[in-house]
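Hey, I'm writing a tutorial for new members on how sequence and structure tokens pair up, and I'd like a real worked example in the thread rather than a made-up one. If someone can provide the structure for the chain below, I'll link this post from the tutorial.
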Amino acid sequence: MAEPNSTIDETGTKLSAPGRVNLIGEHTDYTGGLVLPMAIPFSTVATVRAASDGRYTFSSTSFPGERSMKPDDQSESVGDWSDYPVGVLRELQKRDIEVPPFSLSLWGDVPLGSGLSSSASVEVATAVALLNHAGATLSGAELALLCQRAENLYVHSPCGIMDQFVIANATAGHALLLNTRDLSYELLPMNRGALAQTRVVIVNSEVKHSVASGEYGVRRRELEEGQAIVRARFPQVKDLGDTTPEQLEACRAEIDPVAFMRCRHVVTENVRVREAGRAMIAGDPDALGRVMLAAHASYRDDFGASVEEVDFLVDTAVHLPGCHGGRLTGGGFGGCTVNLVEAHLVETFTQALHEAYQKRFGIDAAIYVCEAVDGALARWDHTPEEKR
């Protein structure tokens, strides 16, 4: 895995950004809701070198080919990996940040298509590397919003702000409870009370998905449809993040039944995020595990974003010794589960779950035992203290 801090050597300047896992709070981050993610020890490393040819060049060790352009190039996205770093460059240019010609190379070990946010990791690593190259800085919120705009406007993926925000702003040893409407956040320790004796175990179902099109976009439109009806009925309500379960229920007859279920997931998920935060403050893994399981049921039934393989992983995990709870994490339709497991039983838990999954589906699932790590700004030692 990548070194945590920036380095300068004969090959260029290297800066890194982690992946992330969301403990709870799915599809709430583009409707003004709450999320509770943490940064995890996978990284994207962006190596930037000054270029003498007057061009911007992008390459990746994970994908073939490279993309090169002149500074005034305004071509559209091309539909491959390079759109993510190029989109970041475009957003920096919109802010009148002059980025000198460069060659940027990306390396990463964040599992692709797993719901651990490899795309946002690329965006944030690119952003801090190019800011460093330009001799510029942005605040944590500005950096996250810039990277989100790159994905929304250039990649054309309707993502929310959660991934970019935690990847930029995380602090080691803590999860980050984020209010996505105003970007206020609270750092919650992962080592309080009995919670200190647990570990976060991520299981990759190896079922791949794309959030840039298809069902993710459909779900977002369904939520926006229901949100508009709630706001028309209750003018004081800003968005679904500001909606109570009672207000949503009062609008049931006016909302398409499927859209209502999608909205119910989001509204009740915000309640669950608050419950999870209280459980973490209390250091209570049993309470946290219960709310994780309730979140998975809502994600599966109301939001319709789970799949057979993931449901098997969650149902199996919760019946294994030492597991307090688990759920599907990420954008949905495959990807990873996140589980809260007693530390002294992690090895037997992972072995039993791996064997059961392989026996049922013939899939060799990757399993990661993770701690909460620093985000990109904490790793960037060129960042002024007030910007961290």
